[in-house]
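Bumping with the actual sequence this time:
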Amino acid sequence: MPAKSPVRNPPEERLVNLVVALMATEQGLTKDTILTSVSGYREQSESGASKDALEKMFERDKESLRGLGVPIETIGDRADPDDLREARYRVPTAEYELPEDIEFTPAEIALLNLAGGVWSESSMSAEARSGLRKIRALGIAVEDPIIGYSPRISLRDPAFPALQQAIELSRVVTFPYLKPGEEAPRVRRVRPLALVEYEARWHVFGFDLNVGADRTFLLSRIVGEVQQTRESFDPALREGAGERALAGLEELAERQLALLEVNPGTEAALRLSRRARPAAQGIRVPYVDAQIFADELASYGPEVRVVEPSDLREQVMARLRATLEVHGGAA
């Protein structure tokens, strides 16, 4: 009988399904129940993944959710709280309940309705609903109704899910990467160690096997499919990788400070002031990538002017000239 091929579930979908399951019961779920009933773990189990691998995946997911502010509670044996062999896990719904005396104005209710339009019960995946049915079948009480916990909009780069899975499995990946100024992408072969968000953009940090050194890649510059190879690496290499990546990006940004003059009360002032520091003339804003920062500054039009550095100013002006040409204007 041929071996089953590994199941590829988007990691973010598995996290959403886990949150849905943990919020759906007051008494909590055991680890075994989660691994056999919650979509994302169940498929991996059915395709032959070892229990040890699934448990490690669950532990990483718990830490990821806690890092996002989701309060996952561990309920141990009352007689021996340190014995976690039969521990149950849940997200206490009291953390999300509104006070009884809270009131909303009609305008606030209208705004909440608009925000709620992004979410709906139908947004919960079929796999999540199937998992809840399985949990109910075990005799575990599940609260109703559950409003969808999966947004209809996604702001992540297409490469994100494949890279996240490769990090979890400790697998080397290859992907085509297009650097500014190059006419064609080059294929990179990388041990992916961490995904980090910096300046509202996602980066993957890892060891570039082609150059033999740590590198950070902007996901928006990955211009093709991320291919997972059969080559694995030691999972211990992932420890502290996210912190190292962010420290490196912050250090680079501190070496690159743009002096800007910004019109008060504009969108540019609102967005740039969040990461700026005052200067004698305007504000100084650190940045990591000159090309991307030039795109952002040009999008503000006359609301912002680049005083220095000169190469950044030239890049912004080139973008503004190109916009004028497209629209038939004169520079």
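The tokens above came from a reply further down the thread. Confidence is low (pLDDT under 50) at residues 118-124, 144-155.
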